[in-house]
Every structure is written in C-alpha cells, then in structure tokens.
C-alpha cells in the first residue's frame, strides 16, 4: 500500500483553509491544517511534507518570517513552499517571496486547476524521492548485511540484486515520464530543477548497483542519496 504524501496548508482564515482542502482533495493526499506560522513550525517538527502552501498575510508571524524559520532548519529546508497572497504590492513584494525561499508566489484569486497542477508536481517528486531512498536503503543492507535485510528472510546476493535492479528500473521509468511531462507543460523552473536532481541521484544509485553485479569486482560503498 502506497503511503500518501502530506501537504501543509497554512492560513489564519478557516474559510481559506476550507477552500484549499476543496481544491486539493482530488489529489487524494493527506492535507494538514495550520492556522498560524507557529502552528506550522510545530507540525514540521514531527511530520514530513511534500509541499507547503503558505499564506503571506497572517497576524503575528507572517508568511515571510515563517518561511525563514523553515529554511533555517536542516530537516525542512528543502520542502517546496508556495506562497499565497490576497494582495499584490508589485515586483518588490514578489521578489521578497522568492528571496524567502518560495518556489512559487501566487496571488488570490487563483485558478484552482493551476494550483492543483502545481501541487501535484511536487507531490510526484516527493513520492519518487521516497522510492529512491527505499532502494538506497535496501542496497546498503545488501552491502552491510551480506544480503540479509532486517526482519526479512535471507536472500542470495544475486537474487536480491536482481530485485533491487527491477525496483530501481520502475522508479527510473516513472522519473523519466515525469521529466517529459514537465518539459511538455513548460513547468516552473524549480520543479524542473528538482526533477533533474532526482534523475542525478537515480543515475548514481544505478551505477552503484551495477558495480555490485557479478564479474565487476567492485564492492565500493554506496554514495549518499540524501
């Protein structure tokens, strides 16, 4: 069973949160509410999120300050942030949003279809990264445990390598399809860059896996996939 991605919705107005939930419910992911910047930071202490939709104008800690805190934390600095704002103070205000670490800056009222499409791209990238980490962990278990995975029956090294190769091939195929989709739709530069980063990590993992194939004579350690 595939675990759902979590999407953090941050807005001090309940009606806005309700509207976001209505727009994003079709993605069939886990939507988490936060009514303030402080509440959002607490949620980020314990859960992993695929993307954050962050309102700019909030009492107390506004969206810019909240984003600054998110980007300072090692655990959360790489989570994509989409700023939502009901006002537009011109290019300077937009630049401040990007400078705070946002991957996008959307003014209200926005097109629900466009917002859902943007969020779905980051959800897909998050899921692919989760799959990649899983394959890397299995490969490390092969190297460190001689083919025995914790809590699982022992497998012959050749059999486990074949299983890992097949799983990795499935992730590679999905990542390639996603990259083509981003190219076709002229997606945001941030989403394209994230997809390219994912493909580079996949390439590194494939090389490490190929090096373990019989006859290569290599048992070098697996490169970090963080």
Automatic annotation (TrEMBL):
What InterPro entries does the record tag this protein with?
Bact_response_regulator, CheY-like_superfamily, Sig_transdc_resp-reg_receiver
Q: Which domain of life is it from?
A: Bacteria
Xref: Pfam families: Response_reg
Q: Where does the record place the Response regulatory domain?
A: 6-123
Query: Does the UniProt entry include the keyword Coiled coil?
Result: yes
List of residues that carry 4-aspartylphosphate: 55
Q: Name one GO molecular function term.
A: kinase activity
Q: Which residues form a coiled coil?
A: 161-188
Which protein is depicted? Histidine kinase
The protein's organism comes out as Streptomyces curacoi
